[in-house]
Amino acid sequence: MATGAEAAQIFRQNFSGGLTAQEQVSGNFRVGNGIVGHATGGYRDYEYSFYQLSLDLTQYLDALLVFDFDIVSEARYDGFNVVASDTGVFEPKAGLLSPITAGVYAPMSNNLSRLGDTGVSGTKAGRATFDLSQFAGGTVDLRFQFQSDYFATGRGLQLDNLVVTGTPVAGVPEPATWAMMILGFGAAGSVLRRRRMALA
Ligand SMILES: [Ca+2]
Fold first, then answer.
1. Per-residue pLDDT tens digits for 179-193
2. 68 alpha carbon to ligand 1 midpoint, in Å?
């Protein structure tokens, strides 16, 4: 888990602008009013929508995902969860990521075709944390997927303030280290110049 002063920011999104090339939305999800999800209106019967994010973690030893969620939906029958794929292909119900945060996921009642048995449902808001360390050293696609059954109610899901942090692999100097190195090279150069002048 990425903790302490050594953790670096890998990705940050507050949805006040558009999406980057590494993000996409599908179904009824949109970006608007500084959020992604059901930005306006509600959701429909048998909806499947998602926000998806591709992360390059090749230069990190670990990674931590944090985001805010706010959902108004039919409890246990409509909801969302987060799934991961390192192949770019998502199989229904496969790759479920479980949050570190306790009490976020709860059992779904009707075993939704893609969401599966576990998700965030009903009327709920909070901040969820996921450990992505199992994907460190590689790339991973994360899908924040929403699904409803026949009885659609509520305005659905909104996501905001998504941050991914991680510990960079050793050997990648921090900016402060680079500054020290450049100063060091400069000092060495001036010593050489003085020596050449003395020889001339
Ligand atoms: Ca926002």
1. 776 777 666 666 666
2. 9
